[in-house]
Amino acid sequence: MKTKRTRLILVLCSVLAMASACGGGTPTGKPEAESAADVRVSKVDGARILGANSEPQNWMSHGRTYDEQRFSPLQQINDANVQDLGLAWYFDVPTFRGMEATPIVVDGRMYVTGSWSIVYALDAATGEELWRYDPQVPKYWIRYACCDAVNRGVAAWGDSVFVGTLDGYLVSIDATTGEERWRVDTINRQPPYTITGAPRVINGLVIIGNGGAEFAGVRGYVSAYKVDTGELAWRFYTVPGNPADGFENKALEKAAETWTGEWWTMGGGGTVWDSMAYDAELDLLYIGVGNGSPWNRQIRSPDGGDNLFLSSIVALRPQTGEYVWHYQTTPGDTWDFTATQHMILADLEIGGGTRTVLMQAPKNGFFYVLDRTNGELLSADPFVKVNWASGIDDEGRPIEAPNARYTDGPFFIMPSVLGGHNWHPMAYSQERKLVYLPAQDIPVVHGTDENLEYIVGEGGTGTDFELAAVPDDPAAAQQLAQMISGQLVAWDPVAQRQVWEYKHAGPWNGGVLATAGNLVFQGSLIGEFAAYDAGSGERLWQFSAQTGIAAAPVSFSVNDQQHVAVAAGWGTFFALAGGEMTASLGMKNISRILAFRLGGDASLPAVEATPRPPVPKPVAEPAGDEVVAAGKSVYYERCWHCHGDGAASGGVTPDLRYSTAETHAQWDAIVLGGMKQGNGMPAFGNILAPEDSEAVRNYVLERARRAWERQQAQ
To answer: 625-713: CATH homologous superfamily?
Structure first.
């Protein structure tokens, strides 16, 4: 019998590429629930965020502080009493998608987002809903979101909270009432962009980036808007546009020298979809820049080049957007090795002196320590298994392995496109001087998509996703599974070494919180929320959340009681794309906010075990091998990121192998015509022909037949 860990890691062989396509209206402008408070909320400003350590009861910014350390000075909950931690309250989020948000807590109020960019205001002491704001994101927009209908949180400033919506709007909301104050469109509708990251507010400007570099025509940028009006203050593009149109600034003019061909016709990519940090003393905003569009440099920049500012950390002036410096972690990226992962600012004793540093563990598997005044590389060493490069040279460039760029055929690479570390936030302990990060070892095969069809606004990475599928051969799948792991790592950034690690059942585990109570908190993919000794890594306490956890916890105090809270909910890219083996874990989406305190005695409702029924005998026989093969190609280009590897749902979207005779009769109406667009299944009639739809249907029939036959043989 396979263990839960074995089942989990087997599926990861398939979850190795981008998640592009699956899922109208206008907001009402009214909260769905009346506020429970009769007074207006306290205002947040830069002085309060800069002085956050004097208000440890609050969590006023995404990383608690502008340096994004995610370290709480609270120590009422500590390593000596954490066994007494219990559930204080829970709040059920009424959506059925992944949860990735970091809650914001200000003076007893919690602001948190769920899927579809819905904002909830809660009483932090009780979990009572005060109001909710629903931006009415069109469900079909999920077609343009790589990785579920997720949102990573809000920003607070003045008496407003700000949220970026999946369909590309930035919204200001009254923090007391939940009423919309203003909304601005941050994107062009074509090509489509998304927002999944949390805004940041610096000196009265709310700053937001976008996602979408998996889609043709997307050119990345970060924008700043005035908090009172929503007026655009500045915009910094991360890749150069058409030289014939001139460049927006000298930095982009210089960056254009690192590109070849007619890259601008494909957008170039470089979206700023997650991490930012701010140094008030230096007055520098640091942004993390994502992958190219297409991913494959052979296509977007055929004669090579570093392709600035892809996969780079860029320092800007927050009031003007002026470029100051950059460091590129993966020059000429061709593997989706983004530099959008969490950045932490700290002062470290290095070489006998104090250095002001920026730390990042991006997808490419190396842990970087930079001088944040000028971008100088201080050190970079692998924190996971890395085979695409043997190290970083004296000039800060990777020493690439032969054929790592898969120009001479497919390349078996580690880390995968899921990264040695993905978006899940790290934490830094000011007391232990350690970084705690969710790490993972996952391989993937990269190869060029020889049949790439360039269509603006549609998925087009230039890589062959079929190569990432789980092998049908059980022995081959098992062999690959042994190479996959997920772990919580305590990392010494000065010595560049691992101090301890805790092995999880598999990868894609939650973000991290460190506290002055000598504790590290993290949730897991299989629904365990746990506390670890910050010095040794010993697991001291755990709670069964009944659902997977990807988000990072926070700590706050209300009524003189320290709390730890986390957003839980099965979903995000892994649950969508994982396929049969992910589904076999038995995780359900129960989207909730969980809050814990010492002596908490609340309990979650019991969850009935509902085993999946066996896959039924297919309603028809699949067509010949040629049609099925064609359907597989279309499926892995357009469908698998939502409906799962091998047409097996990971438990969020419908499992296509269970499709009834009625569904098969309506297949074209659903796939091409958008019959179920309101449920998040968009229409693909603009890019798929009827014969493509029919081929996918036959591939699904073939996968259903295989599953049914395996069941009969047991």
So the answer is: Cytochrome c-like domain (1.10.760.10)
